[in-house]
Design a protein that fits this description.
Strand order of the largest sheet: 3-1-2-4-5-6-7
Number of helices: 5
Low-confidence stretches: none
Oligomer: single chain
Shape: globular
Order of helices and strands: EEEHEHEHEEHEEH
Mean pLDDT: 91
Strand content: 15-25%
Length: 218
Amino acid sequence: MKIQLSRTHYPVTALGPGRRAGIWMQGCTFACPGCVSRDTWPAEGGSAHAVEDIVHWIGHLCGRPGGLDGVTITGGEPSDQPAALQQLVRGLAGLRADGAFDGDVLCYNGCELEEFLDRCPWAADGIDALITGLFRVEQPTDLVWRGSANQRLVALTERGRRVYADHMDRSTANPQMQFTVSGGKVWMIGIPRRGDLRRLELSLRSDGVALEEPSWRP
């Protein structure tokens, strides 16, 4: 089965605990105003990959120095590709069964919990925790790994409850951000706070660097 992806990255340390593999699924029908990842909205964007290739990549990462603490699936809207998401999660469960992967799986989505479980009723078979809810630019928050105050961190499994118990209501004034260069583009990983992107643009401009087609602009 094919899965449409915007990109993947390792290590991701700004979207969940520890050193993680990040998987950005392509396509989002929610199109939240103020979203910083507008490039992930078009369903025809990104590139198609065989799910088994992504699972193989995760398995390879498990053996690297530093290891793999978890996988974060984001986007885009993962539940817009429910069949591909299910195959991916099944593949990760297979790695666990083989003893290759012992991390958690965190999935971002714009649905409320009940709607997500309607779309993906199998979720608790392999997704340990969800961050649920639309991004609402008018509801800023300091909650870790969340973009707006309405979003909830929900554990679905015993592993999820164990890993995320100390993070449910944890706040941070300075959320971690990562920047990486790939394919001639600078990619940002993390949840910026209100005003951060404007400050970034001004800082770069003062150094003579202009951003072309930033993903948060229409």
